[in-house]
């Protein structure tokens, strides 16, 4: 639901006219430094020292973050049972094992369940700011500090969101963003890792570009280059995302204004209960979420004329019970690359069941999202609010 237009066309044509699409190049030769410039601007926006733009999406951002933290076989990483499967897949891609924790009614990771799930091999937690809804970063970072484990924020659905005035992605040791086609900012595909930690940044840079030999600063690394992946971004990506960033504040202001109107006009009205929020001001406003006492009522509300609601339980690979490749341990192209079979992971908590997080399933069945669009007119917003009010009164 990004906005896209002339600014992006102009910036991309500048790159094409310069005939320099590879991200590494000398400005003296006419190279525009679009990827580098986006990284600086994104780091500044999030309020961190380093940003790494990647071609492999938010998945690559998460993998680079985990690799940057030195996580691998023998380690467990806690992820919410409600997130896109990529969050857990990234853990497996670095050879570690995802451990599922419940969400609470905010639709984000439940700090109390996280604390219960921490074991002797837990090395990190990945809170997910799903649908732009901020997780409780105060509670989660406090737990992580107490247990001396790391926090990698999955901000893939929350470009620009914040918690208590501090941007998402800057609370943990690192944060991952996605710029795929379903996001607030998009280059069609793409992702980023942000961090204040120089070691995480350095290791993530090497991991995501083993050809760092191309980079002018490759000689300055404090560690030898090891082999990882090729997730280098292009200048085209950088150019588009720099323009997308210019639109971000306006997008968030419009989404938040629309969300606030739903809340102001429907709060306390018969049948209406909003999902509790860890921080309504920092919420990106991608959705407005309601909760009901049963799935039947939630479905009746979602389907009622003019409401256009959806139940997160129906969101396919965002619900852990649909993560078949993970539940069935189908990972990697070759058995030796499957973390569930790796000798170092023997003895870790490897098994899952479809009903292992019952509270998550219950909440997802009783929740209804209305996806918001920043370009809705006042009249379009009013019509939807009226539809909700009408059906709420009849439930
Ligand atoms: C919560 C979450 N994490 C990770 C990802 C992976 O991002 P990408 O598709 O850009 O690799 C997504 C993408 O939709 C996501 O929604």
Can you characterise this structure?
By secondary structure, the chain is α/β, with parallel strands linked by helices. The chain has a domain at 6-245: Type I PLP-dependent aspartate aminotransferase-like (Major domain) (Aspartate Aminotransferase, domain 2). It is built from 12 helices and 11 strands. The strands form 3 sheets. A 7-stranded mixed beta sheet has the order 1-9-8-5-4-2-3, with helices on both faces. The longest helix has 32 residues, at 235-266. The radius of gyration is 21 Å and the shape is globular. The mean pLDDT is 96. The structure holds pyridoxal-5'-phosphate.
- Can you identify the CATH superfamily of the domain at 6-245? Type I PLP-dependent aspartate aminotransferase-like (Major domain)
What's the shape?
globular
Strand content: 5-15%
If classified by CATH, what would the architecture of the domain at 6-245 be? 3-Layer(aba) Sandwich
CA radius of gyration is: 21 Å
- Uncertain parts: none
What is the third-level CATH name, the topology of the domain at 6-245? Aspartate Aminotransferase, domain 2
Strand order of the largest sheet: 1-9-8-5-4-2-3
**How far apart lie the N and C ends?**
31 Å
Number of strands: 11
Quickly name the level 1 CATH class of the domain at 6-245: Alpha Beta
Mean pLDDT: 96
Order of helices and strands: HHEHEHEHEHEEEEEHHEHHHEH
List the ions, cofactors and other small molecules found in this model: pyridoxal-5'-phosphate
Helical/strand content category: alpha/beta
Helical residues, percent:
25-40%
Major sheet: 7 strands, mixed
Q: How many separate helices?
A: 12
């Amino acid at each position: 639901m990004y906005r896209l237009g002339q600014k992006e066309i102009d910036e991309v044509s500048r790159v094409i006219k310069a005939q320099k699409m590879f991200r590494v190049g000398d400005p003296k030769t006419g190279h525009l430094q679009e990827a580098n410039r986006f990284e600086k601007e994104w780091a500044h926006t999030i309020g961190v020292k380093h940003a790494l733009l990647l071609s492999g999406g938010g998945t690559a951002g998460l993998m680079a973050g985990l690799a940057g933290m030195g996580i691998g076989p023998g380690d467990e990483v806690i992820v919410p049972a409600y997130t896109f499967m990529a969050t857990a897949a990234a853990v497996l891609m670095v050879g570690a094992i995802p451990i599922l924790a419940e969400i609470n009614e905010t639709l984000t990771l439940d700090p109390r369940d996280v604390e219960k799930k921490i074991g002797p091999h837990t090395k990190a937690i990945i809170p997910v700011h799903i649908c732009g809804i901020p997780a409780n970063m105060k509670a989660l970072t406090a737990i992580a500090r107490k247990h001396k484990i790391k926090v990698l924020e999955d901000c893939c659905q929350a470009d620009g969101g914040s918690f208590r005035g501090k941007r998402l992605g800057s609370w943990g040791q690192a944060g991952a963003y996605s710029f795929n086609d379903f996001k607030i900012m998009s280059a069609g595909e793409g992702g980023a890792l942000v961090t204040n930690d120089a070691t995480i940044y350095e290791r993530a840079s090497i991991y995501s570009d083993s050809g760092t030999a191309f980079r002018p600063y490759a000689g300055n690394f404090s560690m030898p280059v090891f082999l990882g992946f090729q997730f280098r971004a292009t200048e085209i990506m950088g150019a588009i995302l720099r323009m997308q960033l210019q639109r971000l504040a306006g997008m968030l202001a419009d989404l938040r204004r629309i969300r606030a109107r739903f809340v102001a006009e429907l709060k306390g009205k018969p049948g209406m209960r909003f999902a509790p929020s860890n921080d309504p001001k920092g919420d990106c406003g991608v959705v407005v979420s309601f909760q009901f006492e049963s799935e039947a009522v939630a479905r009746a509300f979602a389907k009622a004329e003019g409401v256009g609601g959806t139940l997160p339980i129906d969101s396919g690979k965002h619900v852990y019970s649909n993560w078949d490749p993970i539940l069935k341990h189908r990972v990697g192209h070759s058995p030796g690359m499957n973390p569930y079979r790796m000798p170092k992971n023997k003895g870790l908590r490897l098994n899952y069941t479809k009903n292992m997080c019952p509270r998550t399933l219950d909440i997802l069945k009783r929740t209804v999202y209305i996806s918001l669009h920043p370009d809705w007119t006042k009249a379009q917003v009013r019509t939807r609010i009226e539809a909700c009010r009408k059906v709420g009164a009849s439930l």
